[in-house]
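Fig. S4 source data, part A: sequence.
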Amino acid sequence: MLSKEDNDLLCRIEGDTPMGTMLRHKHWVPALRAARLERDGAPLPVRLFGKDYVAFRATDGRVGLFDEKCPHRGVSLTLARNEDCSLRCIFHGMKFHVSGKVVEAPTQSLNPEAFIKTMRLKHYPVREAGGLIWVWLGEGNTPPPLPYLEFMLLPDENLNVRLQEINCNWMQGIEATIDSSHVGILHKNWVGNLGELNLTADNTAPRYDVQITPYGLKAAALRGLENGQTYVRVTELVFPYVSYIPPSNMSTGDRLTIITTPIDDEHSIQYFVRYNIDKPILHDDWRALPNPDAFAPVQGNISNAWSQDRAAMKEDNFSGFNNLQLEDFVVQTSMGAIADRTQEHLCNGDQVIVRARRMYIQLARDFCDGKALDAESADLRHVRSWSFITSADDAARWSEPQLRCATEAA
């Protein structure tokens, strides 16, 4: 369990909190799916770290991300006209170029050029990569390098991005994505159709081997099998948001990355990025989902058990929910807006959770103490999760590069 002070340090990201300040200053964060922004289309609201922003795609295709309120009288710029690579406030016509420069002030009659120079609209560096719009919300003019992840340079046909807003703190999402011990229990109705992932139900108590890396951590969940072999699932976490999920079927080449970002202290977003580095995704059931920006919404609350189907549970549905991702979202939400980790009773199946929490808390403390944090490599295309079945001896060598390469080649 954690103390209340450590739980707050881990979870709270609004205002000048240590974790929030570090994340905004040191890291780029996804703001929304790139496909949502159309040239000269409607500006869209974005909320991150408890603050409100507006994003739009200009006439020439560039993306702008500003503070949501017009600096003149505070009208929402989500109402603005998107024209001539600029947003024009509909209240008094103040016009803001995609670069953040104020270009027109129609109601200022006395020396409008001088007035324009005094008006400031807070705008932020953005990058478009991997089907997402990334933003840096730190102070100053020099953002850190945007880390290049394996999926970020792929063509559109090689990836598919879906997301879901969740009514709980971002850390509950992070912990769920790196926790392999729940897979064969919570998701037992689905793993039988997901290749070797069905082995997680054969042994629900994996032994963990966790390694801290320069970019985050990697965790191997080792499951002994009845035939004397070991099933190994290696999850990678790129600090602070990105979790690489071991593939359920290595033969397809499709991979999954989940990015968990904070909206505010009590709400978060999980981006699911399915991709294939070698070929277009041919069999992607996500493409049939009606809303890519809410692909598995949680229905209801504790009063109706989040619409859990008890009748189905009496038949053959273990959890009472009809969607694998929804199962994760419901259990995260059920912990409360911010999980009270002072009341937990952890077991040895939670080793990766303990190590990850220590890492996040220590980095936040070091940042507050003014310690120089180790610079992360901008090129992280080598980071990749994997899984395999092997002998106990080879399982102990799971982190050796040559073993991973041989496993992927097979």
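Fig. S4 source data, part B ends here. The chain has two domains: 28-135, 148-409.
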